[in-house]
Design brief:
The chain is an alpha/beta fold and about 350 residues long. The chain is built from 14 helices and 5 strands. A 5-stranded parallel beta sheet has the order 2-1-3-4-5, with helices on both faces.
Length: about 350
């Protein structure tokens, strides 16, 4: 009897061990944490989960689409407005040794890109666009790499077994400004696109130094910038915080196919089933992210601000430039003169 009982206990133990062994990989293989800023959260898609935060997380964003397509369980920590310290202080706690996939876009807010766009959207005679761009490029060239290195070290420490993909930014402009109430000159658009390229270059180098993969969306967005047809990046929008962010098509046609191969090892193609599955995850994601709401409340949104020609500063600039602010023709004529000077 003792022998039979012992054999029974051994069999039960073996079965339990088998269950544990088989269950562990299945759990680990589905753990995807999406970190970063508004370009990862899905700001610009106009549809967001109800998680009690201002993070603007969308099931149209590439983390949700990739998770749905590849059967990954997503912890969606990316948040609109996030800077490098915000990722460190509010998002990295989601990582663990069981995390197997991590994506992150970060750096644009640290470089002050929303403020730069706000400055450059003003008529040339009323702004210091080149000065704003110079400031952003100075940060990218002299500060960004060190901050990213520290952040990436923390990510690897907290998620030692994860595949980490660092995601870049597209060029926003195509050389023409079709929006009625912004004044981006061709030369300003060129410099802004060059700044995006510079940000990608420095981010890619920092990622490679840590053994991370860099996913560059630039080529996929060519022909789909602001004012292109079809446009994958919103121009001046209402509400204003949708402006200059990828829209639904930009996330599904630009970002998801860029990020999926290095992150999951397979290509992404949007299907009706994938879109439906992503939408169906909204309640789970919202409930999950509500548990982080207090941490997320510390993140300050970074939003483009539409040109305001009624301020004392603009009125003074108009007087110096001989501009009649009651006349759109006068405003635009002076801006064309300014743009021509820039082009020279």
């Amino acid at each position: 009897m003792a022998t039979v009982r012992s054999l029974g206990l051994l069999a039960a133990a073996a079965a339990a061990t088998s269950l544990v062994i088989s269950a562990a990989p299945a759990q680990a293989a589905t753990s995807y944490v999406a970190l970063g800023d508004s370009y990862s959260s899905g700001t610009g898609t106009r549809s967001y989960i109800n998680d009690g935060t201002a993070c603007k997380r969308s099931t149209h964003a590439y983390p949700s689409l990739i998770a749905a397509a590849k059967g990954l369980t997503l912890n969606f920590r990316a948040c609109s407005g996030a800077k490098i310290p915000d990722v460190t202080n509010t998002q990295l706690s989601a990582l663990s040794a069981s995390t197997t996939h991590v994506s992150i876009s970060i750096g644009g807010n640290d470089a002050g890109f929303a403020d730069v766009l706000t400055e450059c959207a003003m008529p040339g005679w009323a702004s210091n666009c080149n000065g704003a761009i110079d400031g952003a490029q100075n940060y990218i060239n002299n500060v960004l790499s060190g901050q990213l290195s520290t952040l990436y070290t923390s990510i690897r420490s907290k998620a030692p077994n994860a595949k980490v993909v660092v995601v870049g930014y597209p060029r926003v402009f195509m050389g023409e400004d079709c929006n009625a109430f912004t004044w981006f000159s061709p030369s300003e658009q060129t410099r802004l696109n060059q700044t995006a390229d510079l940000l990608n270059s420095k981010t890619s180098a920092a990622a490679g130094a840590k053994g991370f993969t860099f996913a560059n969306p630039t080529s996929r967005f060519l022909g789909h910038a602001v004012c292109d047809s079809p446009e994958w990046i919103n121009g001046l929008s209402s509400p204003i915080d949708e402006s200059y962010h990828p829209n639904v098509a930009g996330q599904s046609g630009g970002y998801a196919p860029t990020v999926s191969p290095p992150l999951t090892g397979s290509a992404f193609k949007l299907t009706a089933a994938t879109a439906k599955k992503a939408r169906a995850s909204a309640e789970r994601l919202a409930a999950q992210q509500r548990t982080y709401a207090v941490q997320d409340a510390s993140i300050t949104p970074k939003e483009f601000r539409a040109p305001d020609l009624s301020t004392p500063e603009v009125k003074a600039a108009a007087a110096r430039a001989g501009v009649d602010l009651s006349s759109r023709a006068s405003i635009d004529a002076a801006d064309r003169v300014w743009s021509a000077r820039q082009a020279r």
